[in-house]
Amino acid sequence: MALLHQTANTVLFSAHADRGHFNWAVPLARAVRAAGLKAELWTNGMCTAWAPDGAFDVVEGTSFGEGKQLHAFVGAYKSFAGNYDSDREARKAFCDNEGKGFASLCEKLGVDPTGFALMSTGGQAGQDAFAARAREPDVAFVVWEANWGAHAQKAAQAALRPHMGLCPSYRCPYRAAYAEEPIPEFDGTDRVRNTQADIRFDGGGSLDVAFITAACLQGRAKDTGGRKRFGAFLPPRGESGDGDLGSDLAAWLAKEGRVTVISLGSQSCLQGIAPWAEADLLKGCLAGSPRVLVASAAVPEDAELRRAEAEGRLRAEAWLPLLAVLGHSSVGCFVSHCGANSTHESLAQGKAIVPLPFFDDQFYVAGVVEEAMGYASQEGYTPLRKAALRQGEGAGVAAVQAAVRRGPPGP
After folding, report:
1. Which of 91, 104, 353, 368 has the fewest CB atoms below 10 angstroms from its CB?
2. Which SUPFAM superfamilies does the UniProt entry name for this protein (predicted)?
3. Which among 328, 332, 324, 254 is positioned nearest to 288, based on CA atoms?
4. Which of 258, 285, 318, 314 has its CA nearest to residue 389?
């Protein structure tokens, strides 16, 4: 950091898309500012709401457009991939018939299926504006998210600025270590993805990209293809990073009774599993835990669940300050899709995780969590997966109840 002060004092951030590809930027920006440098975020209009006050000195949220189409594209991707029960199944569905299945879904939703290149950059005007900013003399460093902000790498290289991409997804190293079956991709081949080039796939294979994943979540996937790896980007211990819980939520958490928290990502795909999936998940958690807090806009229309809500045993919040919630002493269990961010947060707060993965690297993270927490070694252990929630007739409720009650084995 001291060398940066000698010539310039601003670090440019390029981060877009959903929270899983954005959240790393906030604690890093705070660390940059604590070192006496300026942190300047370039993003789209949608993501500006995710930048807390005081995290960045400047937030440029106009050059890359509103971001609504990008958000819709990400939602369509998650909805499509969430229909399948493994990384291989989802990739095969994407690649079959030249991707026409996904294109058809996008058409129904009014989303441009070409998404990645166009919507992450906001068009050529956004790229040009960022490139011009990177050439200004106060810029010391450029940091960019590997999937959606890769345009920033070219801008930094052209401006001769030091730079680094960060990849929050560890999917490719996981595939190389765990996926023994061939996985189809848009390169037109169906093969085992275990070469060094496969591991470096995200971010165009550039070694200027580093992975973000904690050592305890690597499992057998130690080979990073020559890339650097950083641990979780989280606030300093004792700081939630999400702001206060708010007096009402804090008062509810402080009441008697252990709490199970459910948070399945910024765009939950529960409705794609089955019409009754959300209700069965909530009922199973209530059967296995005195109280339940769910990240959801509202409780489903169901008499049993409405009664639990009225009695104070069930609470829904459209958004949860997750790190702060998981740090509360009343919380004993976390039902998670096993996205990297929320998994890191739960582990940092020492909470038991019940994995319920939906797509991509979540399947692999779930497996590593189940090994690390000792579930996989328990006699008769059955992982909680989407297939249980498809069954109906109470089967999903029973599976969730068992998973929530199980907990890690004792010492």
Report:
1. 104
2. UDP-Glycosyltransferase/glycogen phosphorylase (SSF53756)
3. 332
4. 285
- Please report how many Cα atoms fall inside a 13 Å half-sphere around the Cα of residue 159, on the Cβ side: 25
d(CA 143, CA 165): 6
- Looking at CATH, the fold of the domain delimited by 247-403 is given as Rossmann fold (3.40.50)
Cα 10 from Cα 332, distance rounded (Å) = 41
> CB of 260 within 8 A of CB of 334?
yes
Query: Across-strand partners of 135?
Result: none
Q: Provide the token pair at 214.
A: 């904690």
Residue 57 region by backbone torsions, left for phi larger than 0, else alpha for psi between -120 and 50, else beta: alpha
Out of 11-25, 151-165, 288-302, 329-343, which region has the weakest mean confidence (pLDDT)?
Answer: 11-25
Contact 36, 57 (CB under 8 A): no
Q: For residue 240, what is the DSSP state? A: -
Spatial neighbors of 170 by CB under 8 A, at least 6 apart, are 211, 212, 213, 217, 218, 221, 340, 361, 364, 365
Complete edge-to-edge strand list for the sheet that includes strand 259-263: 314-317, 291-295, 259-263, 331-336, 352-355
* Nearest Cα to Cα of residue 324 among 215, 231, 235: 235
Q: Distance from CA of residue 249 to its chain's centroid?
A: 23
Q: Is 6 left (phi over 0), alpha (psi -120 to 50) or beta?
A: alpha
Kindly report, as residue ranges, where domains of CATH 3.40.50.2000 are found in the chain. Answer: 2-66+118-230, 247-403
For the ranges 60-74, 76-90, 358-372, which has the lowest average pLDDT?
60-74
Q: How far apart are CA 186 and CA 36, in angstroms?
A: 44
CA distance 134 to 137: 8
Average pLDDT, the chain: 88
- The residue type found at 71 is H
Instruction: Please name the residues in contact with 350: beta carbons below 8 A apart, sequence gap of 6 or more.
Output: none
Is the domain spanning 2-66+118-230 CATH 1.10.10.10? The answer is no
Would you place residue 1 in the very low, low, confident or very high pLDDT band (cuts 50, 70, 90)?
very low
How far is it, in rounded angstroms, from Cα 169 to Cα 155? 23
- Tell me the two tokens of residue 304: 């049993």
Residues in the chain: 411
Query: Strand, coil or helix: what is 178?
Result: helix
Q: At what angle do helices 87-95 and 68-81 cross, to 10 degrees?
A: 110
